[in-house]
Amino acid sequence: MRMYDIIENKRNGKELTEEEIRFFVNGYTEGSIPDYQASAFCMAVYFKGMTEKETVILTDAMAKSGDTVDLSMFGNLSADKHSTGGVGDKTSLIVAPIVASLGGKVTKMSGRGLGHTGGTVDKLESIPGYKTTLTSDEFISQIEKVGMAVIGQSGNLTPADKKLYALRDVTATVDSIPLITSSIMSKKIAAGSHNIVLDVKCGSGAFMKTPEDAEILAKEMVKIGKECGRNMAALITDMDRPLGSAVGNSLEVIEAVKILKGELDNDLKEVCVALATQMISLIYSVCENEAKEKVLDSLNSGKAFLKMKEWISAQGGNVDYIENTDIFPKTKYTFDVLANDTGYISYMDTEKIGITSVILGAGRASKEDEIDLAAGLEIFKKTGDRVEKGERISTFYTNREDSIPDAEKIYNSAVIISKNRPENRPLIFKKVK
Ligand code: URA
After folding, report:
1. To test the ligand 1 pocket, which listed residue (62, 180, 202) has its Cβ within 8 A of the most ligand atoms?
2. Is any atom of ligand 1 closer than 6 Å to the C-beta of 164?
3. N or C: which end of the chain has fewer CB within 10 A?
4. What domains are there in the chain, each with its CATH number?
C-alpha cells in the first residue's frame, strides 16, 4: 500500500477503506509516513470530508495508537466530560465532585491552557501540593476510593493525535469536522469512560463561532462516540461571554469553591448543573428531572463540596486552601477597569478577554512559557448589564505592572457599550443525544 494512492483517493473524493486509514494512522505515528504526506492527507480531508464510516475508523485507529485506559472494573459508572475550550470555563472543577458525590466514577485527563483558553491542569496546580501526574495504579485506586481523579494527559495516550494536531495547527487544517471529531473522540475513547458528556462551546471565545457549527460538531462527536460503544450526550453552551466572573488559575479555583459552598449562583452554576445532570442521567439511566434533583441535592447539602476536599487531599493538595481561599497568594498589583460610557454592554469579544488574562500573566503565549497562577481578572459586568460611565467593570490581578496598559486597551476594545439593551442570548442552546 502506498501513501501516495491514499492521498490521491481522498483528493478525488473516494471513501477510504479501513486498511487505508489504519495504514495512514499507524505509519504516521511510527514515523514511516512523513509530515508532508500527512499534511496533504489532512488538506484532502479538509476539502473532501469523510463519511461517518471513515471517521469512526479514523477515531478508532487514533485511539489505539498508544496506551488505552481500562475502566471496565467500574462497569457503567465511569464518566468523563470534555469541553471544547473557553474563557473562565472551570466547569470540570465543579461537575466532577458533584458526579463523584453521587456515586459516579469520574476519570478525567485534562489539558493545559494554550492561546486564549485556560486548562484544568494549570488551574489545579495553583493548589499547593496538588499532583497532576499519577501512576496508572494510583489513578485507578484513587477512583476506587474517592470516586474521582483529575490528572494531566498521560505520556503515551493517542500519540497519533499529538503528532497530527501539531501538524494541523501549522497547515491550516484544524477546523475540519472529521479531523476535530477524531482528535477529541480518540482521546476520550482511549481514556476509557463508558459515559461521556461533551460541552461544545460556541461564540467569540470558542472554536466554533456559531450555534449551527457547534451543533454539526456535537452531532458528529455524539454519533462517533456511540459507534464506539459509549453512552454519549452533548450540550451546546454559550462562549460569547466568559463563563462566571473569574479568569485566571487560582481565581477560577476560588470561584469553583464558592459555587460548591453555595455562596454563588450564576451562569457558571447553571452550566455545571446542566452538565452534571447529563452525566448522572447517563450513568444511572434516569430521566433528566430525577438526575437534576440529585445534582441540586448534592450541591445544596454540601456533599459535592466535601467530595472536592476529599479529592484534592487524595491528590496531595493542601485542603486549607479550599477551606479558606483567602490564603491563596495575591498578586502585587491590582487595577480597576472603569466603563468608558453609560449604557448596556452589548457584546464581549471573549477571545480578547482571554488574551487580556494571558497578557496579565495567567496564560502562555507559547508552550514553554511559565504562567503566573495568581494572575487574571474578575469581571463584574457582562453582556446585557447596564453600566454607568466610570463604574468598575473588571479588576486585573498581575505581578507585571508594565502589562496593565496593554491589558486595559485590549479589554476596553473587547467590551462594547451601546445605548440599547442587547437581545438575551441563551446560555444553553441545545442538547444533542
Ligand atoms: N481540541 C482537540 O483536542 N482537537 C481538535 O482538533 C480541536 C480541539
Report:
1. 180
2. no
3. N
4. 3-49 (1.20.970.10), 72-183+190-323 (3.40.1030.10), 329-418 (3.90.1170.30)
